[in-house]
Write a structure and sequence with these properties.
Elements lengths: L1 E5 L6 H12 L3 E5 L4 E4 L6 E4 L2 E2 L4 E4 L6 H13 L3 E2 L3 H8 L1 H10 L7 E3 L6 H8 L4 E5 L8 E4 L2 H13 L4 E5 L7 E8 L2 E9 L14 E4 L4 H14 L3 E9 L2 E8 L5 H7 L3 H13 L1
Parallel strand pairs: 1-2, 1-6, 6-7
Antiparallel strand pairs: 3-4, 4-5, 8-11, 9-10, 9-11, 12-13, 12-15, 13-14, 15-16
Helix pairs in contact: 1-9, 2-3
């Protein structure tokens, strides 16, 4: 099998592990910077080219960064036009990257979510916060990743100030209820092919409420409950993702999904769980091709 890993940086842990896993399985693997790909879009013979040569893969594993979602998904979509198997389809990646749309889809599917509100005008701040309830509030930029652009507002006045400041920058934001009973921890379930292959609990650093590993959080292996496992699998399926990291909070009402990541990192989950997640992804691609 000829496997292409679409990534801007071959040195990244996740990219290296995927390339190693594919090679260990006996496949021919190439790491390609998707921003340097260019496309021949024709009705009879669509092509993807890189550095003057045509790329011919049986399967591709997209590792598209949030900054370059538009072009990255265009490259993935071109491979789809060529009938190349993709670990995640372009439409599913775009769907997951749009935080508002993904929450709306998850809500329609009946998946547990933190109470969330969204508005455009600063004239509607009071109504926006009233929907969420009492403080503290979690205020999120729709375009933020890895905990960037997430603010905890402890009071009503603080929330109003933060929201007004974001709106002055013409930034789109979500406001969510702060789930205090989660105790500044969250869960990451790694879903591959409709199964949870690994899971970890992330604990925020002291003085921090965001549990992201990029924000200094720590990770440890965790056993998910049946309800948490089912929630993660359903969330991934709702967004159409075959490979995803589903982030959840443990609340008094059960598991609450806070995000579904289309390009989840492998380093934290593999080290915390001891599971060869990269190998699991390659196994799944082999199964799909068979």
């Amino acid at each position: 099998m000829r496997v292409g890993v679409l990534s801007r940086r071959p040195s990244l842990y996740s990219t290296r592990r995927l390339a190693e896993a594919a090679a260990t399985h006996g496949h021919e693997v190439s790491v390609v910077d998707y921003l340097r790909c260019y496309m021949d879009i024709t009705s009879r013979r669509p092509r993807v080219l890189f550095a003057g040569r045509e790329l011919e893969f049986d399967a591709v594993i997209p590792r598209v960064g949030a900054t370059y979602t538009f072009y990255g998904t265009a490259v993935v979509r071109q491979f789809e036009m060529m009938h190349v198997l993709t670990a995640n389809e372009s439409q599913a990646i775009s769907r997951a990257r749009d935080k508002l749309r993904s929450l709306q889809l998850l809500s329609r599917a009946g998946i547990g979510l933190p109470v969330t509100s969204f508005a455009h005008s600063i004239k509607d701040i009071s109504g926006l916060l009233e929907v969420v309830g009492k403080p503290p509030y979690v205020i999120k930029l729709l375009e933020g990743t890895q905990g960037v652009g997430v603010v905890l507002a402890p009071t009503l006045k603080a929330a109003e100030s933060v929201i007004a400041a974001f709106r002055q920058l013409d930034a789109n934001i979500l406001v969510q209820r702060f789930v205090s009973e989660a105790h500044n921890t969250d869960l990451r379930a790694f879903v591959v092919g409709g199964k949870v292959v690994a899971a970890m609990e992330r604990v925020a650093a002291e003085g921090e409420f965001r549990a992201n590993l990029h924000r200094g959080g720590t990770a440890r292996h965790v056993e998910l409950s049946e309800d948490e496992t089912e929630t993660a699998i359903t969330a991934a399926a709702t967004l159409g993702l075959d490979v995803s990291g589903v982030d959840m909070l443990r609340s008094d009402e059960g598991p609450l999904v806070i995000e579904v990541n289309a390009s989840p990192g492998l380093e934290g989950i593999e080290r915390a769980s001891g599971v060869d997640v990269a190998g699991g992804i390659v196994d799944y691609l082999e199964h799909r091709l068979r």
